[in-house]
Design goal:
CATH architecture of the largest domain: 3-Layer(aba) Sandwich
Structural class: alpha/beta
Number of helices: 13
Distance between the termini: 50 Å
Number of domains: 2
Strand content: 5-15%
CATH class of the largest domain: Alpha Beta
Strand order of the largest sheet: 8-7-6-9-10-11
Shape: globular
Oligomer: single chain
């Protein structure tokens, strides 16, 4: 059976599809799983052994997909773009409940009608017609031997363990402010590895300068796969609501999530079935303005950014230090 799974973006959303991909491949004897993504996100899936082919969403792709003669389409994006693909291919398809109205009610009215169900479990509803069930093994992420070589750059004392701190996020209102990153870094015991893109290079260097040899910044210096390797070998992870959070969850790491404008109630927090004790949700209390968006903004709509600025660094560090006590 040749199956096309659609999930255009983002990094985190694509990582969240990994259990569905794995279960389709393992539970359907002749399954050939193809995945359609935006070109910028193909790297998330490039090493996944459960995928037969990755297709990039680009001009002229639909005629190529038609030639494949897929038996089934699993739509895990569920928008007008994926509808266009399904209509053009004319094959049996299924999608998942996106719950946009319920999310909007929570954002605009503060009324929570969202089910207590993670998006991964909702993704599986799209695969039910194939007889595919959730195996309960959580997320998957795969790295290569070349990417593992990033560990060779760690000083010898780091190889006995470190806490990884994710410094960036795509949306500004999900990012941990620089002063908070410095505060958290100083409060965490033992060695720390800082991860982020080029825009986090300066804060990475500042934390290194403030903390000294027990901090090492890889901000702006690694590929996605290399950053994933550094998460994989961490003792614990501090992160905002971002794709790296989901990669850390794939490696079953203790994760402290610093929530800004988004909330766990959206059903897109760390997905680790049976491992709730490995997740710490850091949320500023008693803020009526949260959540202000299901995605994020380039700046705080209220101007105060209290969801991040009022984070309790002491409690956050105390939870993480349970795992780094031996470092």
């Amino acid at each position: 059976m040749k199956i096309l799974l659609i999930r255009f973006s983002s990094i985190g959303d694509i990582v969240l599809t990994s259990p569905v991909i794995r279960c389709i491949k393992e539970q359907i004897a002749d399954a050939e799983v193809h995945v359609l993504v935006k070109p910028g996100f193909a790297a998330v899936l490039k090493s996944n052994p459960h995928i037969s082919k990755i297709w990039n969403w680009e001009k002229g792709i639909i005629p190529q997909l038609k030639q494949q003669q897929f038996d089934r389409i699993i739509d895990l994006h569920h928008n007008l773009r994926s509808l266009r693909v399904k209509t053009a291919l004319g094959k049996p398809s299924s999608s998942f409940p996106k719950l946009n109205i319920e999310k909007l009610m929570l954002v605009r009215l503060g009324i929570n009608r969202l089910p207590n169900k993670h998006v991964v479990d909702r993704y599986f509803e799209a695969a039910q017609s194939l007889g595919v069930n959730n195996d309960g093994k959580g997320l998957s992420f795969f790295t290569t031997p070349d990417e593992e070589r990033i560990l060779e750059q760690l000083p010898p004392d780091f190889k006995s363990g470190y806490t990884a701190i994710v410094c960036g996020a795509l949306q500004v209102t999900k990012r941990i402010p620089h002063d908070k990153l410095l505060e958290f870094s100083k409060a965490i015991n033992g060695r720390i590895v800082l991860l982020g893109g080029a825009s986090e290079t300066d804060i990475g260097a500042k934390i290194e300068a403030e903390i000294g040899t027990r901090a090492m910044s890889f901000c702006g210096k690694t590929s996605l796969g290399e950053s994933a390797v550094l998460l994989k070998h961490a003792i614990a992870v501090l992160t905002p609501d971002t794709g790296m959070m989901h990669i850390a969850a794939a490696f079953k790491k203790p994760i402290a999530v610093v929530w800004g404008n988004t909330v766990p109630a959206f059903g897109m927090g760390p997905y680790m079935p049976g491992n709730d004790d490995l997740i710490y949700h850091a949320e500023a209390p008693n803020l009526s303005c949260r959540p202000c968006s299901k995605i994020g903004f380039p700046q705080c709509p209220k101007g105060h950014f209290s969801c991040m600025n009022q984070q309790d660094g002491a409690s956050l560090a105390a939870w993480l230090n349970r795992f780094s006590a031996s470092l």
